[in-house]
Amino acid sequence: MSAWEVAEERARAVIGRPEHRNLGIVRAEDAAEFARSAGETSPHLIDPGRPDFTVHPMYIVSLLRGAGGVDQGEFRPDGMYRDEVPGTDGLGVRLMAGGQLVRFLGEVRVGDRIEVRRVLTDVERKGSGTPFLLLTVEKTYAAERGTLVEVRERFIVR
Question: What is the 3-state secondary structure of 19-76?
């Protein structure tokens, strides 16, 4: 059985099974650094000392782990987190982003405690010559006051 076929089997076994992760509290300094790294120049996005400071809307989508740091063992050789693409941990497969749809539902604020719920919703086998998998993952980012962002991501696994 090929590595991508093992990935398919593993992924199908977790379809619909939600995972929850605490991403920690949004800090102004981190959000401003994200905005600067993204090339933003607007003072209300890059200067956390301003009274009108606003968290960049894409900052929350960039969060994959909490602020506690990461052990090097959590990474694949290609730099991605080992568990970011369901079914692929420890396998020598190639991964590519296959698109992302982001729906903003609320404003992210400094001090928000962010929780993410992730669910693998679909596994499709594609291609006839060199087959590959198309995995669909849905994420919901929320704070205590409700859902802030919904994301639908697709990953290509070869």
Answer: EEEEEEECCHHHHHHHHHHCCCCCHHHHCCCCCCCCCCCCHHHHCCCCCCCCCHHHEC
Q: 0.70 exceeded by the pTM?
A: yes
Structure token pair of residue 135: 């995995």
Nearest to 31 by CA among 51, 52, 50, 58: 58
Residue 32 makes CB contacts below 8 A (sequence gap 6+) with 45, 46, 47, 48, 53
pLDDT in tens, 77-126: 776 776 778 888 888 888 888 999 999 999 999 999 999 999 999 999 99
CB 137 within 8 A of CB 86: yes
Q: Return phi, psi of residue 151, to 5°.
A: -130, 135
